[in-house]
Amino acid sequence: MAERADTTGAWEHVQVLAGEIGPRPATGPAEARAQGYAEEVLRRAGFDVRVEPFRSQTTFTWPWLLVGSLVTAAGILTWWPGLRGLGAVAGILGVVAFIGMADVALDVGRLFATGASRNVIGRLAPAGRPERRVVLAAHADSTKAALLFHPAQARRFGTNLRIHMAGSVWVALAAVLGALVPGALRWEWIALPGLVPVVYGLGLLVHRELAMPWVQGANDNASGVGLALALAEHFGKNRPERTEIWVAITGCEEVGAPVGMARLVARHRAELRGASVLVLDNLGAGELRYLLGEGNLRFHRSDPELVRLAAASAARHPDWRIGPSRVPPGSYTDAHASLAAGIPTLAIWAERDGVLPNWHWPTDVLANVEPETLARAFTFVREIVEAIDRPHIA
């Protein structure tokens, strides 16, 4: 009976976050309202809550526009022999920034950190002596739609990113060779094919800012926040024996890098060393998946023990068809920040036919959330936490 109330609670939280608060742009008032709501729920559940502010970019558009503009400038400057050296520098900078951002390793967005956001962190002491720590993390912000996330393109998102990267490298290489061996070939014409995907990408970014709406974000990620809050309420009533529970509602995940989670890791690295981080993202529709890792150039593997515990829980519910997956190229979750820092982490989401349902598209609304998926996710994550707390029964 208690579990029924808790899983119903997850759905009710999602209704508030997506239905009443609505779209939650990073650093905006709605993101703050969503986190204020989370703070109230955590306090009522008995958690000690802290709010940790930070600065962030407001969107991924501006950093990527800078990268694309550098590469475009490199291609254009090959037409002026006296400026080819400057074009080579622009091309190199553009490619380095592109690769760094695609790998979520270079935070170009810091140049555009004009907004104020925060992480809301609740801590719950165990019933007995604390021996372990589990962090349930979910991001509060939602994104703006873009044509690159159109349902017909979502499955090809990683391929499209590689095409844009190849075009950028092509242009930069032509710019560098044009500066070093200017008379060898017509470098200005050679650069043109690479410019096509780069300029196309710039057009998509401008179109996103001028014409596309903010997404309600019922699945991404009101579902993850709602689930984290429902689990907080559950563990507030049923404290683990030996495990301290953290619930971290992060800000600014949808801005080209998991900024909020990166700030949390940087501030609490010592406390998180040896903790178990469970990232909850897109859990409102589809079939549950535990992710084996993520990363584009450098693949960060999920913690083997957490993967084992997830597989054991999945085996207890064979009709739910829970299985392993991984973050596709070009994408990331909050888990990237903690995995890159060497913190044991596992991200959990739900897919349909290998794709996140309604990913970053206007159809990500409350009506397309499946309460049954939320209920299954609640049980799945709860069992993993209980197995961490009592490893002898895992």
Distance between the termini: 23 Å
CATH class of the largest domain: Alpha Beta
Low-confidence stretches: 1-5
CATH architecture of the largest domain: 3-Layer(aba) Sandwich
What is the number of domains?
Answer: 2
Describe the structure.
The chain is α/β, with parallel strands linked by helices and 394 residues long. It contains 13 helices and 10 strands. Strand 7 (293-294) and strand 8 (300-301) form a beta hairpin. The two termini are 23 Å apart.
Looking at this protein, list some descriptive labels:
elongated, 15% strand, alpha/beta
Quick structural gist:
This protein folds into 2 domains: 2-58 and 114-145 and 214-393, Zn peptidases (Aminopeptidase, 3-Layer(aba) Sandwich); 62-108 and 149-211, no CATH class.
List the helices and strands and how they pair.
Blueprint: H1 2-21, H2 29-44, E1 48-56, H3 61-77, H4 84-102, E2 115-124, E3 132-139, H5 151-154, H6 157-180, H7 187-211, H8 218-237, E4 243-250, H9 259-267, H10 269-272, E5 276-280, E6 287-291, E7 293-294, E8 300-301, H11 304-315, E9 323-325, H12 335-340, E10 345-351, H13 371-389
Parallel strand pairs: 3-4, 3-5, 5-10, 6-9
Antiparallel strand pairs: 1-2, 2-4, 6-10, 7-8
Helix pairs in contact: 1-8, 1-13, 2-8, 3-4, 3-6, 3-7, 4-6, 6-7, 8-13, 11-13
